[in-house]
Amino acid sequence: MASHTPGAPVFAPAADLPDWALRSVDLANPRLGARALYASDDFFAEVSRMLNPEPAQFVPGKFDTNGKWMDGWESRRKRVAGHDWALLKLGVKGIIRGFDVDTSHFTGNYPPAVSIEATVSASDEVEALKAATWTEILPATPLGPNSHHILECASADAWTHLRVNIYPDGGIARLRVYGRPVGALESLTGDETIDLLAMENGGRAVSWNDASFGSTVAALLLPGRGQNMGDGWETRRRREPGNDWCVLELGAPGTVDRIEVDTAFFKGNYPDRCSIQAAYVSGGTDRSITTQSMFWQTLLPEQKLQMDAVHSFSEEIARLGPITHVRFNIFPDGGVSRLRLWGKVEKK
Q1: Residues 6+ apart with CB under 8 A from 138
Q2: Cis ω before 332 (30° cut-off from 0)
Q3: Where are the beta strands (DSSP E) in 183-243?
Q4: Is 117 a residue whose pLDDT tops 50?
């Protein structure tokens, strides 16, 4: 009998995200340390796949020992009362703005509804989490097949763990938890040198003029070096005067001693030069801060860049004292993988 060769994978389209999600961090990203800890059932597809940062894929003709291979979390058909659920550890403690509950490629096997609870716990032990006090932050919400469900969260508290309930069973391809890390730098004394801009330390992207290629501007703040040319901030080819830019907020006010600009994997499309402006901002909105950023003082004058390289600057940095925001300018356009601002948190 002839063997069946799986077909080419079909990748899920990206979600059409609202502004609040675009300016948030995916707190459930494994690259920040997020993990799936437990599932009441993941017979058809293990729960850890639900947190994969890559788009969900469907591979025609691909089966494993339990049945059709699916890219996500999928439980078996429930034949008893109750519902399935999973425990997740967020990569960092954070305030949650909302979720993308993605049922891409799940058509006749998606859950009809989902709800999400949250807690704060110092332990990742499953039994301790089962006994924890949980707060519902997303009430039971209907789901549809093969779709991104962008759902807002009304909670203003910060959380460390989630309990995802599906009613009664089925599959979720991906779960994104959009929010903002908090509290990562609270215990520092001001003597430690850290990356003030790192996503895991609370850094975030405020605004940008273009992000046509690659990942989002927030990729500049991810841990580690970029994994490929799609893992960074890349703008379109500029066909008019000017330059591209983004505004970034530090995790906490601090002084900068060293700057790293990494153009990993960007070879024929890296910026010719870069510069950084900075300010200590108190109050205002993202929009007003962006407008003000054009007039901020220079933290790093224009510097020549090279392809696929880590550029380190220290002597070139102006001593402006503590800052809260930076405007990263690239000339005229191109791609940058990571931006690091090494320094010390402002002493209170």
Answers
A1: 99, 114, 115, 116, 151, 153
A2: yes
A3: 194-195, 204-208, 213-214, 233-234
A4: yes
State pLDDT tens for residues 129-156.
999 999 999 999 999 999 999 999 999 9
CATH 2.60.120.260 residue ranges in the chain?
10-181, 194-345
What is the residue type of 270?
Answer: Y
155 burial type by CB count under 10 A (0-12 exposed, 13-18 middle, 19+ buried): middle
Q: Is 68 helix (H, G, I), strand (E, B) or coil?
A: strand
Nearest to 278 by CA among 311, 256, 260, 262: 256
Class (C level, CATH) for 10-181: mainly beta
Write down the pLDDT at residue 5. Answer: 66
Q: What tokens does 159 get? A: 């959380």
| CB neighbour burial string for 21-45, b if at least 16 within 10 angstroms, e if fewer | bebbbbbbbebbebebbbbbbbebb
148-193 tens-digit pLDDT: 999 999 999 999 999 999 999 999 999 999 999 987 787 777 789 9
CATH of 194-345, one of 2.60.120.260, 3.80.10.10, 2.60.120.230, 3.40.50.2300: 2.60.120.260
Radius of gyration from C-alpha coordinates of the chain: 22
173 class by beta-carbon count within 10 Å (0-12 exposed, 13-18 middle, 19+ buried): buried
Which residues does 36 contact at the CB level (< 8 Å), separation at least 6?
46, 47, 48, 50, 51, 73, 86, 87, 88, 89
Per the CB < 8 A criterion, the answer to whether 264 and 335 are in contact is no
Residue 219 token pair:
């990729």
